[in-house]
């Protein structure tokens, strides 16, 4: 691989990293706080390539050929092309955010239970609450604590219940990136089929106004609380699709 091709490759990889930050695709892979680091990494790659080009323009000489020969002898030219594989996948066939398939792979594993929020529930008739926060609050006290008798709104995608009966509402929680995603879910007590009949899942995202059934988030249920559906409507996938 010549120096010119190597520098062009670095510029291409760096530009793609910056692009996925600008258009928001990066949130399919990492949490928002890491997006600036991805952008900086892309800018650094572009900067290194441009510095190398500027150096070659200032000091052209026969040394370039020796560098290329050394790269060829050690195979580094061939391995450098591997940089293109993940970049082309992201650029040409950007994978969507993880969804019900990732929840299915988790099987009957206990859902992620995060730290119980110290702040009170937001005010309002049915405030929006992250699924991971609701599960943590429900698992902390048998009577539901601040959730007792309160309607809240959850946003998540619909998946079959773990016991095969009915539906659950799920989200994926990530600490760093999509590779460490863990499912968090609630079981829907939905006698009026407001969310949908069992079997009509397919990564449908819904806003569901729910009311916690106290005492249902136990070790025996895998810390999956049951909630009664008061109202529901189908919505587009939020961005970001993960909870943190």
Automatic annotation (TrEMBL):
Mention any Pfam family matching this sequence: DUF1980_C
Q: Which domain of life is it from?
A: Bacteria
| DUF1980 domain sequence ranges | 148-244
The answer to whether the entry has keyword Transmembrane helix is yes
Keyword Cell cycle tagged: no
Q: Which InterPro entries match?
A: DUF1980, DUF1980_C
Q: Which UniProt keywords apply?
A: Membrane, Transmembrane, Transmembrane helix
Give TM segment ranges: 34-51
NCBIfam families documented for this protein = TIGR03943 family putative permease subunit (TIGR03943)
Question: Protein name, please?
Answer: Putative repeat protein (TIGR03943 family)
Traced from the root, the source organism's taxonomic lineage reads: Bacteria, Bacillati, Actinomycetota, Actinomycetes, Pseudonocardiales
């Amino acid at each position: 691989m010549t120096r010119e091709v190597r520098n062009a490759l670095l510029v291409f990889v760096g530009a793609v990293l910056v692009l996925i930050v600008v258009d928001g695709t990066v949130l399919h892979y990492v949490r928002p706080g890491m997006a600036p680091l991805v952008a900086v990494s892309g800018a650094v790659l572009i900067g290194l390539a441009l510095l190398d080009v500027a150096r070659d323009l200032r000091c052209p000489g026969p040394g370039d050929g020796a560098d290329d020969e050394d790269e060829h002898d050690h195979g580094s030219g061939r391995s450098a092309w591997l940089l293109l594989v993940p970049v082309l996948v992201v650029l040409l066939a950007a994978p969507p955010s993880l969804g019900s398939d990732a929840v299915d792979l988790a099987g009957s594993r206990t859902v992620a239970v995060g730290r119980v929020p110290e702040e009170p529930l937001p005010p309002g008739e049915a405030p929006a609450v992250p699924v991971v926060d609701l599960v943590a609050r429900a698992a902390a006290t048998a009577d539901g604590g601040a959730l007792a008798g309160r309607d809240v709104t959850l946003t998540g995608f619909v998946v079959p219940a773990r016991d095969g009966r009915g539906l659950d509402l799920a989200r994926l929680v990530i600490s760093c990136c999509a590779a460490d995603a863990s499912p968090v879910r609630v079981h829907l007590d939905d006698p009026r089929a407001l969310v949908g009949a069992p079997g009509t899942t397919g990564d449908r995202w819904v806003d569901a106004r729910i009311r916690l059934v106290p005492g249902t988030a136990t070790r025996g249920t895998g810390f999956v609380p049951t909630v009664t559906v008061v109202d529901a409507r189908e919505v587009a996938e939020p961005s970001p699709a993960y909870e943190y």
